[in-house]
Amino acid sequence: MNEPLSAGRVMDALRACYDPEIPVNIVDLGLVYNIAINDEGRVHVKYTLTARGCPAHEYLSQQVKSTVEKIPGVKGVEAEVVWDPPWSPERISEAGREELRKAEADNSNPMLDFDPANFKPSKMGHLVKNPDGTMILINPANGRFRVNEDIANLWEKSEGERTVDEITSLVALDLQLSPVEVRPQVIELFRSLIAGGLIGPETRKRDEHELPIHP
Length: 215
Hints:
alpha+beta, GMP Synthetase, Chain A, domain 3, 3-stranded antiparallel β-sheet, 3-stranded mixed β-sheet, globular, Outer Surface Protein A, domain 3, single chain, 2 domains
């Protein structure tokens, strides 16, 4: 039996969405302001950005819509950017602050300064697709990261045969956007995947196992 559609369920799903420039999901980052659901199952998400003119605007909007649309019972999604009240770092949850502390420690990785025109990322670890639709990336050290479909697809495209710029062109085609629009976000997502131990420079292929996680 499916769990009833609720604001809490939508918030939980949105934890798989990330501002590409910050390695914290948009819920713990404090970007989601309000979720409204009408009797017909249409969901209205009000969220903000860390700053006006943020280049992640279009990419983040696509993430929010595609993620919420996959929740059973949802008949439509509207994602609205609002600016009142303005976002500030005080809105970040304690879990989000811990992720930022980890990211700062990981920034010493020299691989983060890759050249997108030459670096050929190769996926590490494996992807788990659970029966409820959630997806988890697990690195070789058994670190687990809940991700949305966009991030999972980016990881799956990383076979060590294409450069970051070539993968960016594929992502742009999928989203029906220009490579110039998505390039900054794709680069930041790759940095997050590298910091999480999910991407390396190796060219050898690895097996992917799609098994459910059991508590």
